[in-house]
Write a structure and sequence with these properties.
By secondary structure, the chain is an all-alpha fold. The protein has five helices and no strands. The protein has helices spanning 3-36, 52-62, 73-90, 108-118, 120-128. Helix 3 packs antiparallel against helix 4 (108-118) and helix 3 runs antiparallel to helix 5. The chain starts with a helix and ends with a helix.
Length: 131
């Protein structure tokens, strides 16, 4: 088996459960907020609202993109992508289980802080692209 396939399987084995976990934590938050506000919760989509994260994701993907008319289009679109990618790259040194880490540099904590601080540039770039 190719090393690229093994690395890709390792990355997907870590990222997909995290994304699914976040989606269903959002569902739990919606249910709690519905209970606190005494209104109906997200029980419309699927049984017990289990398909609500998929409905929210598809709504987010299919929304019409809005960008300011005076913005530099390429910078305005690349800023959130850069911030998201840097947040994913920062997780490369975080161990998920014994022996289950994507990368194991000796200076992992310094790497984590450096990449986390670079995420600010995505926000600055988005603001700067409008001028």
């Amino acid at each position: 088996m190719s090393i690229a396939v093994v690395v890709l399987a390792g990355i997907l084995g870590i990222i997909l459960p995290l994304l699914l976990g976040v989606a269903f934590l959002v569902l739990a938050e919606l249910k709690v907020m519905a209970f606190v506000q005494r209104r109906k919760g997200p029980d419309v989509v699927g049984s017990f609202g289990l398909l609500q994260p998929l409905a929210d994701g598809s709504k987010l993907i299919l929304k019409e993109p809005i960008s300011p008319s005076s913005a530099n289009f390429s910078l305005f679109r690349m800023a959130p992508v850069a911030t998201f990618m840097l947040s994913l790259v920062a997780r490369a040194v975080v161990p998920f289980d014994y022996g289950m880490v994507l990368s194991d540099p000796n200076i992992g904590l310094l790497y984590l802080f450096a990449i986390s601080l670079l995420g600010v540039y995505g926000i600055i770039t988005a603001g700067r692209s409008i001028n």
